[in-house]
Specification:
Elements: H1 10-26, E1 32-35, H2 42-50, E2 55-60, H3 63-75, E3 85-86, E4 108-114, H4 122-135, E5 141-146, E6 148-150, E7 153-154, H5 157-169, E8 176-177, H6 178-187, E9 190-198, E10 202-209
Protein name: SAM-dependent methyltransferase
Organism: Acaryochloris thomasi RCC1774
InterPro entries: DUF938 (IPR010342), SAM-dependent_MTases_sf (IPR029063)
């Protein structure tokens, strides 16, 4: 009997609909959305059929996550959900940039990143922003979801406790300061369009390529 490689992240069930509502508002109407750090793949398999005719391209650094994404895709097939690719946000060149290596059905017009930058080193956030600056066309969208500090302070006590727990697991992890992310984005020709307050003290941060 085949082993089911699907993994589950409980938070996905809680946040997928509110994230989807924002994506409907901010994404270009067609093209490919590259999801950086897709994790279990539950967001990808939920969003792809609901955002068509856009294509959704999931990716992850972790082979176990890639297997989970592929398994979810097998259970809920749709032509608009592409096969997962290996992607390390910190790499100076991503697979989708390498001519003749990966062929896109439609050009990448947006990048989505959900709950990554607080559970990875700051260099991963910088890599995400740099990659978006390289890949996105003028007017392209970078969507980042997760908890943030604002003006150096946590927005809720629960976030402060969460941040402490993250840093105890790995000192390089932690909730990022929104202003630092925006400043780093500007260096990559990405301007802030808006932020949207989300449930459970999270934010949707929408950036656009100049």
């Amino acid at each position: 009997m085949a082993i089911d490689a699907r993994q589950y992240a409980p938070a996905t069930q809680r946040n997928r609909d509110v994230i989807l509502s924002i994506l409907h508002q901010v994404l270009p109407t067609q093209g490919t959305v590259l999801e950086v750090s897709s994790g279990t793949g539950e967001h990808a398999v939920y969003f792809a059929p609901r955002l068509q005719p856009r294509y959704w391209l999931p990716s992850d650094l972790n082979p176990v996550a890639q297997a989970s994404i592929a398994a979810w895709r097998d259970h809920h097939p749709t032509e608009y959900l592409l096969a997962p690719i290996h992607l390390n946000a910190e790499d100076s060149s991503w697979l989708v940039e390498q001519e003749g290596v990966y062929r896109l059905v439609e050009p990448i017009v947006a990048i989505a990143n959900i709950n990554m930058i607080h559970i990875s080193p700051w260099s991963a956030c910088l890599g995400l922003l740099a990659g978006a600056g390289r890949i996105l066309p003028p007017g392209g969208i970078l969507y980042i979801y997760g908890p943030y500090k604002q003006n150096g302070a946590h927005t809720a006590e629960s976030n402060a406790v969460f941040d402490q727990g993250l840093r105890s697991q790995n000192p390089a992890w932690g909730i990022r300061n929104l202003e630092d992310v925006i400043e780093a984005a500007q260096i990559q020709q990405l301007k802030l369009l808006k932020t949207v307050s989300m449930p459970a003290n999270n934010l949707s941060v929408i950036l656009q390529r100049n």
